[in-house]
Amino acid sequence: MAFSTGGGGGGAMADINVTPLVDVMLVLLIIFMVTAPMMSHEIQIDLPQPTNKPPEDLPEPPTPIRLKIDDIGNLFWDNSPMPKAALLPSLRVEASRDPQPTLEIEASQEVQYQVLTEVLATAKNADMKKIGFVETL
User: Fold this and answer.
1) SS3 106
2) At residue 52, does pLDDT exceed 90?
3) Gap between the Cα atoms of 27 and 8, Å rounded
4) Domains in the chain and their CATH numbers?
5) How confident is the model at residue 14 (pLDDT cuts 50, 70, 90)?
6) Which residues make beta-bridge pairs with 103?
7) Residue 69 is inside which H or E element, if any?
8) Residue 55 and residue 93 in contact, taking contact as beta carbons nearer than 8 Å
């Protein structure tokens, strides 16, 4: 407890002892100064370098392949009926083209999930890299 030497009131002193507060703040400052450099990580990024030559014209991308699956699981290759047995050879031919066309799959809302997974597995086995889904209206 703090005692006052002045006369007058016999109440407690209202002065705050700031020494422990300064000690704690200095310790926290040292901790943050030591740990802050460890929190930053260096990330290697290969950024493109500027060049004086104009960008070369990119070739026109091939037209996408529209593969439609109706309610009962029939396949239509660009609106032409296609048997399921002919899907893998046709996709292999298209996958070997450079650049590879995009396979756009349009499945009916009522088609069975198994039919869609079989088509996706066939496309993967044919090494198709660009596969997209088209929403039916």
Assistant:
1) strand
2) no
3) 40
4) 65-133 (3.30.420.270)
5) confident
6) 65, 131
7) strand 65-69
8) no
Check: pTM over 0.85? Answer yes or no.
Answer: no
Report which residue type is found at 34.
Answer: V
Output the pLDDT for position 62.
92
- Token digits for 55? 């960008």
Task: Show the 3-state SS of 98-135.
Answer: CCCCCEEEEECCCCCHHHHHHHHHHHHHCCCCCEEECC
Sheet with strand 103-107: strands edge to edge? 80-82, 75-77, 65-69, 103-107, 131-133
Q: What is the predicted pLDDT for the residue at 26?
A: 95
Per-residue DSSP letters for 32-54?
A: HHHHHHHH-------PPPP-SSP
CB atoms within 10 A of CB 123: 22
Inter-axis angle of helices 113-125 and 87-95, nearest 10: 40
What phi and psi, each to the nearest 5 degrees, are found at residue 35? -85, -20
Give the three-state DSSP class for 75.
strand
